[in-house]
Write a structure and sequence with these properties.
Shape: globular
Structural class: alpha+beta
Oligomer: single chain
Largest sheet: 5 strands, mixed
Number of helices: 17
Radius of gyration: 26 Å
């Protein structure tokens, strides 16, 4: 049931009283502006749904929105720029106007919150013009004149998920008649000035070094395995709500003395690394770059990844937990950087290493941001797969009995409830959003369906709860994770091997290399040691094929192929051998040219 079409009207809201300012963009703004100029708007714009408190009049809801705009400079910001160039400056207006679309219904669908989310999602599909558009598209959903929801889409150049939560909290306080304290968090221009100081520049340089170390030594992709193909996947949302999980999480924190957020991150990393058969968990944790006090409540876009690398080569959960806080803090401290320089570094390092950095695992704990409420809760999804770039997606859906054996009625909420929600295209393999840790553990997850059939996706979240329950009773050997959680490591098969810290299929490397070179016969063998890496033999015939040309062609074909790592050495021979023993036969061919093929960046 959708009901009759609502009556639609547009209210122009004028504001005045702010201060006019201008200055450079922040690193986070520059990062997201690059995405906005390149990506489809529905992938990079963000949205939120705010339930309207009962008894609120439409005029009061709009007046509170006007007060938000005057209070927060980001909402009065535009980015002038010449055609064809990315903005480098932001301008804060002292006065202006924005519009609110009022959708007055005579009847609402049964699931009104889902309907409001659909309206907010619809507001995302149009591109924001950075030089002139107000940064929010606001719809006010009403029933017979009574406002029920604010459904809005936002420009990612002015807000992120945490900023929208701050705005919602301020808006509710204004409606309740509370006096808001003075803004002490960084405004975008304050942050830009801080980033330009000597200490800010040193922090950015340290961040680049942190990222380079991980990208040079960590796995090129967490999900390098059969079935992991393509740069983007359509993933269905799966939401967990569990009182059991929340109680277990609290007991683990009490037993170990760890913070609940760190305990949950540790359990999640342990399970991801276990499932992927990796010796470390490398994941983007975007929201965590607000750990500085003056960033915690900043209405701004601070969307730059904190890159976590947690070594899971320890015997037990408690040992891993003792390492996790330091690893997380190290990631958080290195999440402020010049995104253009970062990506230039990644390009250079991956060309040299022969891989493509894959941002295929994202963990975003938004449970501690302001106004993290069940109704209209927000989620984030990486929109490009590139380092430091984050987009968002809304979380909706009511609990459903999808795993009856795991459910039991509980006074504090469902014992363990899983519900499927809408699908969307993501450039990640696993995306997890933690919305609440008490009194329910509530998180949303999107996983690549080619790697996680429905039962396995649900089993992963159930396994997370089981791991927390086991860790609540005592330390858990990591070798027992399959028995404890029911989650099994991936089976890659005999053709896969670990090279340079990454899982690789030499036969797939040969196929990729041959395809990239137009069908040139190729054979790839693993060296006697990890330092030797892979060696590729190519039958170039009479062509003047060089190792540099071979390496460049392979690198250009790598996106969407996480099981392919470039050889350390390319050997060009004239003809492919006719013998049935390829390794020995290729080795006996006269060598025309050989080399590492990495000279392009020298």
């Amino acid at each position: 049931m959708t009901g009759p079409e609502p009556r639609s009207s547009t209210v122009t809201v004028r504001y005045a009283g702010g201060e006019e300012r201008r200055g450079p963009v922040t690193m986070g703004q520059a990062n997201m502006i690059r995405c906005m100029l390149r990506d489809e708007p529905e992938h990079i714009n963000i949205h939120a749904v705010w339930p309207v408190p009962a008894g609120t009049r439409t005029a009061s809801a709009i007046d509170a929105l006007r007060a938000l705009v005057v209070r927060h400079e980001a909402l009065r910001t535009t980015f002038p720029h010449p055609p064809g160039e990315a903005p480098r400056e932001q301008v804060v207006a002292a006065e202006g106007a924005f519009t609110v679309t009022v959708l007055d219904h005579t009847a609402l669908p049964r699931d009104a919150a889902r309907h409001a989310d659909a309206v907010a999602r619809g507001n995302r599909v149009e591109r924001f013009h950075l030089d002139r558009d107000f940064g929010l598209r606001i719809s006010l959903l009403a029933l017979d004149g009574r406002p029920l929801f604010v459904a809005l889409a936002a420009s990612h150049a002015v807000t992120d998920i945490s900023a929208l939560s701050v705005l919602e909290e301020d808006w509710r306080d204004l409606l309740a008649g509370r006096t808001l304290p003075a803004v002490t968090a960084f405004t975008p221009l304050d942050l830009a000035a801080e980033e330009a100081t000597p200490s800010g520049l040193r922090r950015s340089e340290a961040s680049l070094r942190h990222w380079e170390r991980i990208i040079r030594t960590g796995p090129q992709a967490m999900f390098a395995e059969p079935g992991a193909e393509g740069a983007e996947v359509e993933a269905e949302q799966l939401t967990l709500r569990s009182a059991r999980g929340a109680r277990a999480l609290a007991r683990v924190a009490e037993r170990t003395g760890g913070l609940p957020s760190t305990v949950l991150l540790t359990a999640w990393c342990a399970l991801v690394a276990h499932r992927t058969g990796q010796s470390s968990c490398v994941a983007a944790v975007p929201t965590s770059n607000r750990f500085l006090p003056r960033l915690a409540r900043s209405v701004n876009t601070v969307s730059q990844d904190a890159l976590l690398s947690l070594d899971v080569g320890v015997p037990s959960f408690d040992a891993l937990l003792s390492k996790a806080w330091g690893a997380a803090l190290n990631a958080y401290r290195h999440s402020q950087f010049d995104a253009v320089r970062l990506w230039d570094m990644i390009d250079a390092v991956t060309h040299e290493r022969g891989s493509r950095f894959t941002r295929d695992v994202v963990f975003n704990d938004v449970s501690t941001v302001p106004a993290a409420r069940p109704a209209g809760a927000k989620g984030e999804a990486g929109e490009t797969g590139k380092a430091g770039e984050t987009g968002k997606a809304g979380e909706t859906g009511e609990a459903a009995d999808t795993r009856p054996a795991e459910k039991a009625a509980d006074a504090d909420g469902p014992a363990l409830d899983l519900v499927r929600g809408p699908a969307q295209v993501l450039p990640t393999r696993v995306l997890t959003f933690v919305h609440e840790t008490a009194p329910l553990l509530r998180l949303g997850m999107w996983v690549d369906p080619a790697l996680f059939p429905p039962d396995e996706a649900e089993g992963f979240l159930t396994g997370l709860v089981r791991l927390l329950e086991a860790a609540a009773d005592g330390d858990v050997p990591l070798s027992a994770l399959t028995a404890v959680t029911g989650v099994r490591p991936v089976e890659r098969g005999a053709g896969w091997t670990r090279v340079d810290g990454s899982w690789v299929s030499p036969s797939e490397v040969a196929r990729a290399l041959s395809g990239a070179l137009g069908g040139v016969p190729a054979h790839v063998v693993e060296g006697a040691s990890d330092e030797e890496g892979l060696t590729a033999y190519l039958a170039g015939g009479d062509s003047p094929l060089t190792p540099e040309e071979a390496h460049t062609a392979l690198m250009d074909s790598l996106p969407g192929r996480p099981g392919v790592l470039a050889p350390r050495r390319y050997v060009i021979v004239r003809d492919a051998p006719a013998e049935t023993d390829p390794p020995g036969a290729w080795l006996r061919q006269p060598i025309l040219r050989e080399g590492a093929g990495r000279d392009r960046h020298r």
